[in-house]
Each structure stands twice: as structure tokens, then as C-alpha cells.
């Protein structure tokens, strides 16, 4: 069962409102006296439902519960935009696998060229739902989409070790499990020659994910699984 976000109104009391309240009393069929797990930021709690009102659940906090992250490394993912459904899957899996930052990037061969505010809000909701489901301690930061060059010259320079997944790379990704590491995944059509040259000139280390060709979504999941192992 998910660990729901709640508002702590008193050291021994919490409230859940809105969509989560309807989900708990509707599909989950929870009632007064039942226990559920909640969280306030990075802190977890076991709580008992004391009252149910229209769109609001009041809970008694029974005890605190420690939450943990999947890995100790600070993982970062830069993902060139792909099909919207595939992008949503990648964001969900990245959040579950413990990534700290997600950077959607617009490359020359990206299937999608822009992201609406409504779509970005949906992505943020997906991150929150993934965190609730897997019960990780921290909430990953989802960045606004930006062009590849802007990302390369800007946000990526704050990364510890910067990797880029490239077919034929001599080094294996498994040799780069560092405390602060990020991976850049290209679009389905791959980087253009100019983009690849720019990435390498900026100092990204090319790493391989095996001898076969992976879809962008699969490559992202595989890379995060290895780096966070």
C-alpha cells in the first residue's frame, strides 16, 4: 500500500485531503480505526484514522517510521525527450530507482520538441506517485525541459562525474559507480554528429551498456540500475 503524503497539524495528529482522501476511503475501503502509513516530507509515520469527513481524513499518529533511499549515491538522469508515454514511464522508473534529479532535454532528433505546463504538472504528479509507492525517503527534483546545449553548458556542470551512453564506447558503465554521478541518454535516433562532438568536448565520459542496441527508455532504466547498485 502506498505511503500517503499528509499534513502534520499537531505532533500526534495529521490530515489528508483531496484526491488521496477519496482514494483511501474509496478504492482502498479504509474506515475509522484502520491504520495507514503516511509521510511528512522525508519522515514516515504509522497512523490510525480517527474521523472521515467529506474530502478529509483526520489521523492519530501512532509512531514514527524511518524511511530510506534506494542507494547512497547522488544519481542524476538527463533524458532526451522521446514519445510522451515512454517519457512518463522513464520518469516513473527513475523515481523508483532512486534518482535525485531528472533533466528532460530537447535534442535535434527528439520526438517531442516542447512540453506544455499541463504535461509537466502530470510528470510532477507521476514523480510524487512513484515516491508514495516505493516509500523512498527523498523526493527527486524534476527540472523543466531545456535544449541540449543549454543543459550541457549549464546544469550538467554541477554534476560530479558526467557520463553519456554511447554505443561502441570502450568503457563500461559499471566502472563508474561514484557517489555523485549522472548519465545522459540520447533520443531514439541518437545524437547528431555535432551534438555528440559537443558532449564529448564538454568532458562527458562515453560509456557502454552492452553490445546490443537498447531503446532510450531501456537504456535509462539499465543505466540507473547499474549506477545505483
Plain-language structure description:
By secondary structure, this protein is of the alpha/beta class. The chain folds into 2 domains: 4-65, Hypothetical PUA domain-like, domain 1 (Ribosomal Protein L25, Chain P, Beta Barrel); 74-227, SPOUT methyltransferase, trefoil knot domain (Alpha/beta knot). It has 6 helices and 14 strands. The strands form 2 sheets. Strands 7, 8, 9, 10, 11, 12, 13 and 14 form an 8-stranded parallel β-sheet that branches. Strands 1-4-5-6-3-2 form a 6-stranded mixed β-sheet. Strand 7 (74-80), helix 2 and strand 8 form a beta-alpha-beta unit. The radius of gyration is 20 Å and the shape is elongated. The model has no long low-confidence stretch (mean pLDDT 92).
According to CATH, the homologous superfamily of the largest domain is SPOUT methyltransferase, trefoil knot domain
Class of the largest domain, according to the CATH hierarchy? Alpha Beta
Q: Within the CATH hierarchy, at the fold level, what is the topology of the largest domain?
A: Alpha/beta knot
Number of strands: 14
What structural class is derived from the secondary structure elements? Answer: alpha/beta
Rounded to an integer in angstroms, the radius of gyration calculated over CA atoms is: 20 Å
Q: Which bin fits the share of residues in helices?
A: 25-40%
List the uncertain runs.
none
Strand content: 25-35%
Estimate nothing, just give the exact number of structural domains: 2
Shape: elongated
- The helix tally amounts to 6
Mean pLDDT: 92
Amino acid at each position: 500500500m502506498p505511503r500517503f503524503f499528509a499534513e502534520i497539524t499537531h505532533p500526534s495528529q495529521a490530515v489528508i485531503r483531496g484526491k488521496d482522501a477519496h482514494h483511501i476511503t474509496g478504492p482502498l475501503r479504509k474506515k475509522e480505526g484502520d491504520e495507514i502509513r503516511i509521510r511528512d516530507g522525508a519522515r514516515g509515520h504509522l497512523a490510525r484514522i480517527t474521523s472521515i469527513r467529506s474530502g478529509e481524513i483526520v489521523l492519530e499518529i501512532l509512531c514514527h517510521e524511518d524511511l530510506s533511499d534506494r542507494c547512497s549515491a547522488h544519481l542524476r538522469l538527463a533524458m532526451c525527450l522521446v514519445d510522451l508515454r515512454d517519457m512518463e514511464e522513464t520518469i516513473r522508473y527513475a523515481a523508483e530507482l532512486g534518482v535525485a534529479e531528472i533533466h528532460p532535454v530537447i535534442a535535434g532528433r527528439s520526438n517531442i520538441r516542447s512540453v506544455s505546463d499541463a504535461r509537466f504538472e502530470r510528470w510532477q504528479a507521476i514523480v510524487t506517485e512513484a515516491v508514495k509507492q516505493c516509500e523512498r525517503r527523498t523526493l527527486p527534483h524534476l527540472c523543466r525541459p531545456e535544449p541540449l546545449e543549454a543543459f550541457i553548458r549549464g546544469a550538467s556542470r554541477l554534476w560530479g562525474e558526467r557520463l553519456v551512453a554511447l554505443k561502441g564506447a570502450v568503457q563500461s558503465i559499471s566502472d563508474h559507480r561514484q557517489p555523485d554521478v549522472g548519465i545522459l541518454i540520447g533520443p531514439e535516433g541518437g545524437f547528431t554528429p555535432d551534438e555528440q562532438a559537443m558532449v564529448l568536448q564538454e568532458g562527458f565520459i562515453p560509456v557502454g551498456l552492452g553490445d546490443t542496441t537498447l531503446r532510450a527508455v531501456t537504456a535509462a532504466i539499465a543505466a540507473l540500475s547499474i549506477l545505483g547498485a
